[in-house]
């Protein structure tokens, strides 16, 4: 961490700031510029906040050199993390597909869709029992009854299941029924909920908040990991911008960012990112081409009757076609990646 | 609500959509344009979601005419809501000031600051016992011990207190100690928490999420009101934009928007909106000039040693000066408003 | 266009608004709701502005049904526009690649890079002679000398060239040397410049402004087309958001939007969209997978010595590898698209 | 400027980067951290771009310490710049009001409005003769005929005039008729136009682009100043965000930012910032309370018949009332500012 002092800071004031820093267990190096001094902080700075120094009227700028997360960081864990769910691996270079209805509405609805997505090759079945709805007057989900149906469907079709947890109150309940616990975008910084997730080892699918920076996203993963659960799967679902053609603006560069900064797998949710079923196939193909570890897609056999998010649900036959197409893209990219990796190894050898 | 059908929609398809609408208990009027039909939905449309119709491939656009909130809406409650806290009224045309440390750190710290803000005329004492921190490694607040200190300070200095609730787990605890329950920006759409707030009648200070639209903000107020607690105070604290000179971008027009759309009082938090203590006075003056019902300001006697948000905390003497200055602005504006109201009445009489 | 009148609008006031509308040569249909009336405007509404009605205190909402652009719209020209440049077609289903240095710096630099990109299969050579730089102290380009070098390189390597026009002052000069005229993001709403482009038939590469909506983007294309030049190629280069990991946030859904709303070809500029050379390959693959008509990529043989945008320039060998990889993605997607089209025809026949 | 090198950079690579820096005429200081080195660049860094170093694969971060503008910076010119227009001073602590129609439509329209705004105490008359319109089919302004009317109105009512310049083509024409040349938000980075403005000494009113950072805003002012014209008045008119209740989101903190970073005066345009006449008075009061140097307000006697921007135009009687009210706010704030300044002087003396 670097602290830029304001022009005109006296020796006495500088000394005080240095003492403050040393009280935090850090060492300080000083660089004198033409008109300003710069302090370099050496030590365990990941846990120090920039704002700790901003209270001082003599500090002009604080620049973080090391990232503020540790366990989520690539520096902490060099190889990609692979998260196991049932017999399926997420993050091992394969393409994971999570599919199912936005909202569990009935046994018939869930089982119809489950059969279809399983047949098309989906690896995990999704379905909401507790739904975060903007309006208190909208359908809020079937609750425990929905969880039971989901568990049953998972067992019958031999497919792991994933459902959203909205509150610490329902943690034990949801955890007991599901294989993956999903945390929605609106709860990405619900820190009480994040901490609670440390008490299970079941994988957590953490969605990026709609205006969260990549650093905040990884800090929320860090909360879960620091609480005791290393099994975090990140999920990008679009950010909010001025452009309203799509429901959100999908930021695909985040896949590259996460691959550089972290070892955690990242999947893309094109359904929420676009809000329009016609865009799900092209955007899914783009997501796979950019290198994501998986896709999360809403499927409904009667989207015009869906109780939630009908406009962004694919019909089963469209989903089947999409599965084929994204697999082709994945195959092409995967083949090339293997070649690149061999090249990298070759270069490495040459260097040594 | 208006539904614009796509060009080329057949009579049969149109009939089906109309049946769907009528099944919701609504009436339909049809307007035929040159190439497209438009359906007008008449009835209780506040509870109908736009997305309910988007699943159909024949629907081009859905336009809401009536707002989706009811209890929070100005149409539902024509006169301004006044929220009583102890002996103080919020929303009655006076200027309410909530002040205190971001975070309760110790008895000495809290009581020193409480004495100062009370002396300067603050109406409510704030202080965080549970703190939502981006990093799991940052100080997370004193918890119940902090709540006890806050209650004690409130009693000793005869000033109502306000503190943040982060989780349903701590609802009973926090509710038992505080006079106003604050819900932070990151929890604005924590719907489980919002619903829980219906089980008290204590006022709720609801902060706007950092990327929430005004409609979403009022829908979150609606959640609390629909759950049984009408005592909601709105609080704007800046939205996230591309501009980083300030921590957030304060959207002061929201005060005008809320006054038009809702009857609830709205206060401004210039501390979080700017993140810089030098800006708090000018921005507070602007907030009062635009017509807000109050201000929420962080005060710390030793901001460079604050455990949280030091850079945006005012020293007590600066706060005292600010209090005088915003009162002057409020007096000028209030005087004029009374004149305007008399004028309006005069005009009204003339019309009748 | 639909006008929603406020509750309480008198018959007399309504009559006046209707007269205003009829004076514009439009017909009006009226729909009475439970508490509000809605006017439907029928006729040539593309040229009417929403704001024309907002001056009235009785108008609550104005909703446009038809898009405000005509010549750029898919409704006006059903099949995809194909723009011819030399012997190359843009928008015919093939993948066009435009490559070269950000800035022309010297004959040696330009010719070295031109040879390389031609060898790798690029279809068009780019190079800036007039550079829009944020700072007046940055290198502003070689001017006419640069244009001459670009023309010479194009002729020598038998490749059409593309360069940016910044001002009407240099229109004749730039137009005389280049095959495609590029309009930068900062000039997307430089309306004087757009009008001037109507006096040539050379293709215009129009970049989206960094905070332009898709509608504004197409309206700027409309300016050029309405002035007499139908040969517009759209180019997305990222929009400005709160996220700063990349220079801009690339909005790939814009490709789907443009394909739906317009007949014009759209290409993607991953160099400006990301600002980082490591991201150009993955983002290019995503852009091709989503269905864009081409890519515009900055290439430099010595990026650490480039006078502009070095960090986002690919070295020639990386560019060669990228060309192969995006071609694979394009082949996979193109093959599938042909199948889809055949299917669509089949379905169409079945319907008839 | 600080360069943070990546972990693992070799001595040889570090030496090369240092040589590059020294070739730019800068000195380098080195600080070694636990795992990374940091280079401090000393000298004329304002003219060096961050991106110059990003081409190197060994550079992790580049942090600017000094601002990249010089003539526009407070460090270059400590006291506030006062811009003289006719007999009126802008930036001397008084409140300047610029008022008039968005668009000059006819002699009768302009003279009616000019008489009204002059009577209410406006200092400068505005009116557009060349209008930047999103649609090529909208009224584009009266051109030279409009300029003549504006000049005539200015002379008859003894009030300086201000009008927008859109293109270098019309520079001589516009410059010959107007007292202040306005550059619109969409042309803030039309660098050819900015450079041209150096050939006059008439004041330039430079509007902030709708997604321009404060640094980019000041860099555009720097373009004009570096070209030879120091008389720049900045104007904030709202930025584009996700919130659509108002046309733009007014960022009032920019006034504080500009006062800290620059010596140039800054005025606020509440008409474009909000797009709604009902908000103009409250937002104007806020703008004055925060400390701006002036207001630019659209006035029209028949806003429902205005050819442009009717919804955001005030009627003359509302404008007259607004003038009184903002003057009251200004008086209160100005009185206090004088007291503060005296205090500052007192403190200064004490320090010496």
Q: List the uncertain runs of chain A.
A: 344-352
Quantity of strands of chain A, as a count: 14
CATH homologous superfamily label of the largest domain in chain A:
Aldolase class I
Mean pLDDT of chain A: 91
The CATH topology assignment of the largest domain in chain A is TIM Barrel
Described by strand count, sense and barrel closure, the largest sheet of chain A is: 8 strands, parallel, barrel
- Output the CATH class name of the largest domain in chain A: Alpha Beta
Helix content of chain A: 25-40%
Ends apart, CA distance between termini of chain A: 32 Å
CATH arch. level architecture of the largest domain in chain A: Alpha-Beta Barrel
Strand content of chain A: 15-25%
Strand order in the largest sheet of chain A: 7-8-9-10-11-12-13-14
Number of helix segments of chain A? 11
- Greatest chain-chain contact: A-B, 49 and 49 residues
How many structurally independent domains of chain A? 2
User: Which series of helices and strands of chain A comes N to C?
Assistant: EHEEHEEEEHEHEHEHEHEHEHHEH
* Oligomeric form: homotetramer
Structural class of chain A: alpha/beta
> What's the gyration radius of chain A in Å?
23 Å
Morphology call of chain A: elongated
Q: Please, could you describe this protein's structure?
A:
- 4 copies of one chain form a homotetramer.
- The first copy, chain A, has helices spanning 11-23, 51-54, 107-119, 144-157, 171-177, 191-196, 214-226, 253-261, 270-274, 277-290, 316-351, and strands spanning 2-5, 27-32, 37-42, 59-63, 83-85, 88-90, 96-100, 124-126, 161-164, 180-183, 204-207, 232-236, 266-268, 294-298.
- Chain A is of the alpha/beta class.
- In chain A, the strands form 3 sheets. Chain A has an 8-stranded parallel β-barrel, surrounded by 5 helices.
- Chains in contact: A-B, A-C, A-D, B-C, B-D, C-D.
- Chains A and B meet through helix 2, helix 6 and helix 7 of A and helix 5 and helix 6 of B.
């Amino acid at each position: 961490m670097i602290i830029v002092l304001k022009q005109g800071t006296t020796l006495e004031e500088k000394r005080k700031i240095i003492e403050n820093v040393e009280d935090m267990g850090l060492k300080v190096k000083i660089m004198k510029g033409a008109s300003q001094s710069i302090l370099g902080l050496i030590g365990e700075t990941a846990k120090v906040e920039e704002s700790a120094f901003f209270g001082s009227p003599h500090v002009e700028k604080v620049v973080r050199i090391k990232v503020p997360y540790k366990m989520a960081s690539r520096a902490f864990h060099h190889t990609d993390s692979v998260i196991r769910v049932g017999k399926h691996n997420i993050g091992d270079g394969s393409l994971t597909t999570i599919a199912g209805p936005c909202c569990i509405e009935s046994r018939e609805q869930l089982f119809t869709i489950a059969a279809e997505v399983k047949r098309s090759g989906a690896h995990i079945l999704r379905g909401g029992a507790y739904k975060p709805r903007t309006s208190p007057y909208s359908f809020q989900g079937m609750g425990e009854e929905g969880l039971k149906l989901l568990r049953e469907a998972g067992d019958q079709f031999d497919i792991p299941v994933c459902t959203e947890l909205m509150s610490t109150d329902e943690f034990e309940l949801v955890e007991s029924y599901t294989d993956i616990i999903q945390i929605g975008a609106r709860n990405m910084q619900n820190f009480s909920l994040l901490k609670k997730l440390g008490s299970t080892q079941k994988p957590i699918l953490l969605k990026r908040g709609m205006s969260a920076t990549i650093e905040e996203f990884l800090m929320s993963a860090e909360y879960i990991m620091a609480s005791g659960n290393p099994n975090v799967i990140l999920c990008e679902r679009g950010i909010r911008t001025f452009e309203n053609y799509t429901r959100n603006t999908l930021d695909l560069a985040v896949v590259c960012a996460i691959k550089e900064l972290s070892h955690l797998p990242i999947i893309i949710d094109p359904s929420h990112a676009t809000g329009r079923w016609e865009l799900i196939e092209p955007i899914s193909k783009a997501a796979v081409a950019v290198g994501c570890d998986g896709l999360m897609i809403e499927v409904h056999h009667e989207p015009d009757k869906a109780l939630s998010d009908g406009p962004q649900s694919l019909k089963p036959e469209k989903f089947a076609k999409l599965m084929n197409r994204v697999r082709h893209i994945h195959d092409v990219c995967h083949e090339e990646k293997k070649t690149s990796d061999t090249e990298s190894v070759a270069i490495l050898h040459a260097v040594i």
